[in-house]
Design brief:
The structure is a homodimer.
Chain A (H helix, E strand, L loop, with lengths): L6 H20 L2 E2 H8 L3 H14 L2 E5 L12 E5 L5 E7 L3 E7 L5 E8 L6 H15 L9 E8 L3 E2 L6 E2 L6 H9 L3 E5 H11 L9 E6 L3 E7 L2 E3 L30 H4 L1 H10 L7 H9 L3 H25 L3 E5 L7 H14 L9 E4 L6 H13 L17
Parallel strand pairs in A: 4-7, 7-10, 11-14, 14-15
Antiparallel strand pairs in A: 1-3, 2-3, 4-5, 5-6, 8-9, 11-12, 12-13
Helix pairs in contact in A: 1-3, 2-3, 4-5, 6-12, 10-11
């Protein structure tokens, strides 16, 4: 939200963040204590506090009588426990997922609803509104809603509060602002799932995460130094379009032999059926595995090895860290993940071998919505310095 | 340099950076103007200014008589033009390179000297000292030296001011501190070359850079958001050890079929000789090319295609940006770079194709030393907010 802000606005924001950080860390403080802790001038501090009180982010209350000495009572300032709430919405291909956090950044609810592919955007936004209302049964004070994080399918140019999703939803930011009356931040939902896993999921606390999603599409996201890495045009994380087969099958992206052509859920099911197996979806494949089907086991072993090879190259390039595997195909479990890990460890540089970790994702379908919240918490100038959840580390 | 600093020290550093930034931006300022521009309290500001004057970073001088009105003269504060100088040293395998910048971050000199491989570290540090003295003939005020940036060969664990280079030079930081009496920051020299190219070289002004060095080793570095990306253990940028051939030749790293086994200067010269060519080094190969040698052209075409394939996968993963090719092998020119670019563009995702740029590196042998300076300028808490060079963009 800072792309167009001038230097003075940014300076003020830095001071505001500092005040919020101190209130979060030290609890109730008088203006005078806040002044000496922050090093800000009386004028600057009083202006910032007045603004924070007027937006509801901070509340002022008289100190306990025991703490008063003489003269007029000293007001103590605290973060407003009902303010600072953020909602995340993931507009997936055939479902809407929502999630919400309170001021302490604890997840207080999630909800999902499937819909037919191609549902018009107006109806998807309405559906998201209904789901949010279902969360708000008392626990959620929507009046204190500060911002909305949103995930969408496909590349997002200029991700953030002036995002342009590539897949033709130009007016989505407008629809959302009309409905929710708060600033909106948009990014790709798979990349947001990576951020969610690094914030609340199986990579919680890790600052260097490679997240790979093996679903009907194959994609991912990179978290470096605790922040989402997007690349200049928001085109990072396209692991599914790394070429793994010379003269391979054509891919939806326009290329050939991409990882997605061999490791997507659809590609794996096609290959399984071509080898004589019978499975319409990943759960059917997983249950064939459980029944000892060797064809399924061999196929997933080959796919795992292929994926492990790509991940090894990637870990050599960006540095070893925690690798998280999500998406429906990860539900097939060890048949995929064990050969994947074997090849990953065998092919990463020997010096890096012990620094690579591998875990299955744990947030499931709501990862995108949770990641949209994490994005707002990381990027909003007012919220970014709020107290973090216990699992997420402080930004560098 | 901040890893062990407590929150109050970090807060004070932020204020100090702000004061330096304002002085850099607005030129000479009175304490009172500095107070209103910064929003800092009188007490905080006066303490910071006193400390900056005592370290020599800022000088106080009386205002011009015309500007005085009445009473005691108002002092104006300015950045000390002789302070803030940084030296970079690159301890390469067989040479030491040094470079220095002045307070405006302009490069004011570089020097290099070759030495036998395996020269003891004490002698290498002495050699560096002599080279630095050769730079100091009047232009360089070593008394104002603030920090030393250092590049070394091989992985560097915990890069920064408490770095441990992997290749057995435990006492290097101590030797350097004894000799130069200033804080020392160490990182891998190839990664530093990446930062130098992004700061002063062919990627100047680009915030997303993939730098690949094709020399007798193959490595590289990643610049994301204008900063060096290291990975948690300082093991990023090992592009040379991405596997490109199944069951390929053994590699120095302990793996097999690594990019380095086909695209290092040594591998290319070996292959050229195996195909009947005669060349002892890259200049001889380049001159064979110039004489129309088809064997050399075909070989470099194959190597370029192989490298382009790896780079395409990398651009799909981290997002397209500027790709910079350095190292001796890049001197072979279009015979290598044209097929490399063709394959890179053909194999990156179609949607990313127009966002990828390719340039040869331009800083040559001193890139590591210059990158070491850039590292200090980016990372030192006091210097990081100094006015940047005209070509480097503001940090995000």
């Amino acid at each position: 939200m800072s792309s167009q802000a001038g230097p003075l606005i940014r300076l003020r924001r830095g001071h505001t963040e500092l005040v919020l950080e101190l209130l979060g860390k030290h609890g109730p403080l008088s203006r005078s204590s806040l002044g000496s802790l922050s090093g800000l001038s009386r004028t600057t501090l009083y202006e910032i506090v007045a603004e924070l009180i007027s937006t509801g982010a901070v509340v002022a209350s008289p100190a306990e009588p025991a703490q008063r000495k003489r003269g007029r009572p000293v007001e103590k300032l605290t973060l407003n426990p009902r303010a600072g709430q953020v909602i995340g919405i993931d507009f997936a291909r055939r479902a809407v997922h929502v999630a919400a956090v309170n001021v302490a950044h604890e997840v207080i609810g999630t909800a999902s609803e499937a819909h037919p592919a191609g549902l018009p955007w107006k109806q998807r936004v309405d559906l998201a509104g209904h789901l949010v209302d279902s969360l708000a049964g008392g626990a959620l004070d929507l009046g204190a809603l500060t911002a909305l994080g949103v995930g969408v399918v496909g590349p997002v140019f200029n991700p953030g509060d002036e995002a342009t999703p590539a897949h033709g939803v130009d007016d989505l930011p407008i629809l959302l602002r009309e409905h929710f009356q708060v600033p909106v931040v948009i990014d790709n939902n798979t990349r947001l799932a990576a951020l969610a896993e690094a914030t609340w999921g199986s990579a919680a606390g890790s600052r260097e995460v490679v997240y790979l999603r093996l679903s009907y599409g194959v994609g991912g996201g990179l978290v470096f130094g605790g922040s989402l890495h997007r690349g200049p045009q928001g085109l990072s994380g396209e692991f599914g379009h790394i070429r793994v087969i010379e003269d391979g099958k054509p891919c939806e992206c326009g290329g050939t032999g991409c990882l997605e052509t061999v490791a997507s859920a659809g590609a794996v099911l096609d290959a399984y059926r071509a080898a004589g197996g019978a499975a319409d979806d990943v759960p059917a494949l997983t249950s064939a595995l459980r029944d000892g089907d060797e064809t399924a086991r061999e196929l997933l072993g080959e796919v795992g090895a292929r994926v492990g090879d790509v991940l090894a190259g990637l870990c050599n390039a960006v540095g070893p860290g925690l690798v998280v595997i999500g998406g429906e195909l990860a539900d097939t479990g060890p048949a995929l993940l064990e050969p994947l890990e074997d090849v990953l460890r065998a092919r990463v540089m020997p010096i890096s071998r012990n620094w690579v970790g591998l875990r299955p994702a744990m947030l499931g379908d709501t990862a995108g919505a949770l990641g949209a919240i994490a994005l707002v918490l990381h990027e909003s100038p007012v919220l970014s310095r709020y107290p973090k959840t216990s699992t997420s580390k402080e930004d560098a």
